[in-house]
Amino acid sequence: MKKKLMLGTLTFIGLLTLAGCGSNKLSGDYTGTVKFLLMESKSTLTFKGDTVTEKQNGDTTNKGTYKIEDNQLQMKLGDTNMTADLSKDRKSFTLKSAEGLAGFANGTKFTKEEK
Predict the structure, then answer these.
(1) Strand, helix or coil at 6?
(2) What is the DSSP letter of 104?
(3) Which residues pair with 93 in a beta bridge?
(4) pLDDT tens profile 53-107
(5) Number of other residues whose CB lies within 10 A of the CB of residue 75
(6) CA 64 and chain centroid, separation
(7) What is the pTM of this model?
(8) What angle do CA 46, 33, 112 make, to 5 degrees?
(9) Phi/psi of residue 38, nearest 5 degrees
(10) CB pairs under 8 A, 24+ apart, for 89-97?
């Protein structure tokens, strides 16, 4: 009886640990429309594992990594650092700051594409 209880407790703790490990990851495609002057450009960020790939008009433009801390999404795409506010349900985020020309995208909301 004690062995079954102990095994059940260890299994429960293991499942909680695994669930917690995956909570700081995103997966799938997030799309936003970047507006600059009179032009608009659709941009898609694809998250897989700890990597992120940027695509514009179907072509890969940048690859990088990301991490999540306290609902803040921090990305490094190529040489560019970007920070975004992640929604609580993790179905969207809004770019808060970006370096260089990527700064034109500040304020852009990216929404997860449901498949």
Answers:
(1) helix
(2) G
(3) 86, 110
(4) 999 878 888 999 999 998 899 999 888 899 999 999 999 999 998 877 676 677 8
(5) 23
(6) 11
(7) 0.74
(8) 40
(9) -100, 10
(10) 90/26, 92/30, 93/30, 95/32
